[in-house]
Amino acid sequence: TTTTTTPHIHTRHAVSQSKSPSFVGVSGIVLQETQNTFRIITRDNKMKVVPKSDSVFEIEVGKYVCTIYGNNFRYHSFERSKAKFKTKFSTEL
Q: Distances in Å between the alpha carbon of 54 and those of 61, 70, 81?
């Protein structure tokens, strides 16, 4: 039996744009996702609660970077699994 103490998928979440300048540049690992926020733990072991609304997030998995628009992501996970999203233009931040 082999046990590991590190996650199998290393991801980095970062706020690339936000209407609130204090959230831009916040990065770390998401501890909890709620309908309207991400709870992110930073490198210096501080937890930041970042609102999804009016924010753009970059998620890095390995060598890939994905962009998530928080306004389109403001649903519970079970609601997102059955939702059919339409293409919308993003609001200017």
A: 23, 6, 22
Residue 48, pLDDT > 70, answer yes
Please tell me the distance from the alpha carbon of residue 26 to that of residue 14, in angstroms, as a whole number: 6
Report the pLDDT value the prediction gives residue 50, as an integer from 0 to 100: 93
Secondary structure of the chain in HEC code, one letter for each residue: CCCCCCCCCCEEEEEEEECCHHHCCCEEEEEEECCCEEEEECCCCCEEEEECCCEEEEEEECCEEEEEEHHHHCCCHHHHHHCCCCCCCCCCC
Of all residues in the chain, the percent with pLDDT exceeding 90 is: 29
